[in-house]
Specification:
The complex is a heterodimer of chains A (505) and B (320). With 505 residues, chain A is mostly helical. Chain A is built from 22 helices and two strands. Chain A has one domain (3-229, 243-499). Chain A is 75% helix and 1% strand. Chain B has two domains: 26-121 and 245-315, 3-Layer(aba) Sandwich (D-Maltodextrin-Binding Protein, domain 2); 123-237, Periplasmic binding protein-like II (D-Maltodextrin-Binding Protein, domain 2, 3-Layer(aba) Sandwich), CATH 3.40.190. In chain B, the strands form two sheets. In chain B, strands 2-1-3-10-4-11 form a six-stranded mixed beta sheet, with helices on both faces. A five-stranded mixed beta sheet of chain B has the order 7-6-8-5-9, sandwiched between helices. The longest helix of chain B is centred in the C-terminal third of the chain and has 22 residues, at 294-315. The chains are: A mainly alpha (505), B alpha/beta (320). Chains A and B meet through helix 3, helix 15 and helix 20 of A and helix 2, strand 2, helix 3, strand 7 and helix 8 of B.
Chain lengths: 505, 320
Amino acid sequence: MDTLGLMLGGVQNALAPEFFLLCLVGVVVGMLVGVLPGIGAIAAISLALPITFHLDPTGALVMLAGIFYGTQYGGSTASILLNLPGTATAAVTCLDGYPMARKGKAGVALFITTITSFIGATVAILVMVAFMPVLARVALNFGAAEYFAVMFMGLIAASALTVGSPIKGLAMVVVGIALGLVGVDINSGQFRLIFGSYNLMDGISLVALAMGLFGVSEVFASMTRNLDGYTTPKVRLRDLIPSRDEFRASLMPAIRGAISGTLLGALPGVGASVTSFFAYAVEQKIARDPSRFGQGAIEGIAAPEAANNATTQASFIPTLSLGIPGDAVMAIMLGAMMIHGITPGPRFITDHDVMFWTLVGSFWVGNFLLLILNIPLVGIWVRILSVPRHILYPAVLFFVCVGVYSTRNNVFDIYLTLFFGFVGYLMAMRKYPPAPLLLGFVLGPMMEENLTRALVLSRGDPTVFFTRPISGTILSITLVVLAITLFGPLWRKHKARRAGSTPGP
Amino acid sequence: MKNTTALAAILLTATTGVALAEWPERPVTVVVSQGAGASPDIMARLVADQLTEAYGSPFIVDNRPGGANVVGSLSVANADPDGYTIFFATSAALVTNPYLMANLPYDPLTDFDPAVLVAMSNIMVTANPDSGIETIEDLLEAERANPGSISLGVDSPRNLSGIIARSINHVGEVDLTLVSYNSIPQMVQDTVSGEIPVSIQSASVATPFIAEGSLHPVAVASAQRTKAHPDVPTIAETLPGIDLTGWFMFVAPAGTDPEILASLNATVNEILAKPEVEELASSLGYELVGDLDVAGSLGHLEAQFENWATITSNLGIQPE
């Protein structure tokens, strides 16, 4: 049977009452949990895991997958309304989503993220169906040098995330990398920068860092802000629905985001954090007026949201077709499959074809359900903003503490969040951007690992990055882009000066 | 009056007696010192689910990851020895950490009472099928023929797989280049794709890839061949003295009622004898133990301590 027929058969299976119900339960749970700041997919899936022991394996996977992508939909809500990202991905959505909310456009932002999330997921599902075996094979060709190249590209893209002083942005990337070094040095097995604390042996918690720098610092800042001029934003239905222009402005970014999200998502280990930063950077680079970014540019939420949902779906490609989980969440999914005696791997699709296509079918059904469920909810979420701040912010801190604690069941992470909240507050006062710090934190250790591994494998020969075709191509493109970024403005200035000096008096 | 006192006394003794007989009368927390989905977590959930059924009272898995198992271990060491906190401990938490980490905030021998050894997680050397390496002899010969040419994937030089690799180097008098991976799946992918020829990981990770032919099993690191792979030789058949295995053991905070430990031991061993549990565990790559009483489990723990003392002193590894 052709792929399209299999796909439609899968959708049909997924619509059977049993799977439909499990899918619905999964996406609703995921969405609601995702809205709670910090309580991400990992916590939600590990809580649901024991329940699935008693389900049939397909149903279990349908439900767990629903929780996973459901949290991605919910995750943007807290970022946009309260500047509270639970993941590195959601931090990108904060950059323009929160400014939009402060301008009274929270409804529009939520509406757009819902729709672009759906677009992202749909594109990824279609690509997955059509190219799964090809993508899986390409992913298999990715070694350390290639990963390093992709991550280097991501880090260069991060330079675009700097609104304001590029020096400050660069400084924050470096601080982020330094924070990322805390923990075990993979090559020697020695601990670095842990200051004798076993709480730091596994490194700094990403959730604690993200929530502290973004959300908690915002709460601190609000304490010092003059409340006299503050009015609760009014929510009118008219403000909820994006205008035609806003729709048009977000469509192409969403599609671009979806495509880059799918391609990068198919690589195990790259994950959504890199893809949403990358999608954001691309939009900022090609925008006619890049200065709007960080002030509430609609492309700034459309592209990364599409990208991260595309990645979420695409990360099933390496997990299912190679048996290699792309991230921690996928590792749990893999664990769930193994508990049911199903072994993912190249033979999974042929051995368990009905299960596979039902699962893929359920992805689409689940994303459609999320679209339908989310739009009426936008009006409700936006109302959170009309809660007076002396009630809202303590509640936010409470949920942040619960969320941070839930990721590792460790009270230390709560103190860490408060510490980074204070640091973030100081940074905001001096206009040091937190997003580059977060990207440095995520990418730094991954780059270090892959850089050293590539060099160990080549026995110290650095040309390996350019002699391997995929890595060579990616690095060359990155260097050209870097050159344009660095010398473009200089060249333009030079031209302008010449143009300005030639006309006589 | 006399009668009521007597009655009270009888009731009192009866209730204490019943309290033991009826353990557990409220949910039991099963601490796992690694994250959900990690290999001890899967096994712990499998057994916890069966324990819930057997006792008719919930056994809840509580993931306390962090600090190379220290965070979870410490939380159990400090818990009340009332039988309501038990630890699904890994060999890393119980015998590896004391030899690798200075200032370990718990002492495995005095802070915990072993209840039952559950399963062995065998570690396996695997090779890319096109690498030409089929046995440990091949591996040693390839390296000796061209010193510095063979890369060996491990998760960290100070973890179990790294120590196996260093033992191979030590006993085999070679110098295989260790390549470290934060992500074990990434290491497996690199071995499957031929980026590295050989890697060391737990059999639970390697088994599916061996079954489909994308990895070749070279040797297991245990002293005896395993039930799941009887045709795969041990490393010790070529390089005598190497015996390194991961394992999972239920322990409770020191001072837990011996009757509770005995009850847990008996129930877990009954569970491990069930064919469906055996089948599931072996499909996950674990070898169930199922025949050790409390004393036997303690004996295993003490023997492992000696083993690690020998290995780390042979390799010159100091706690840090």
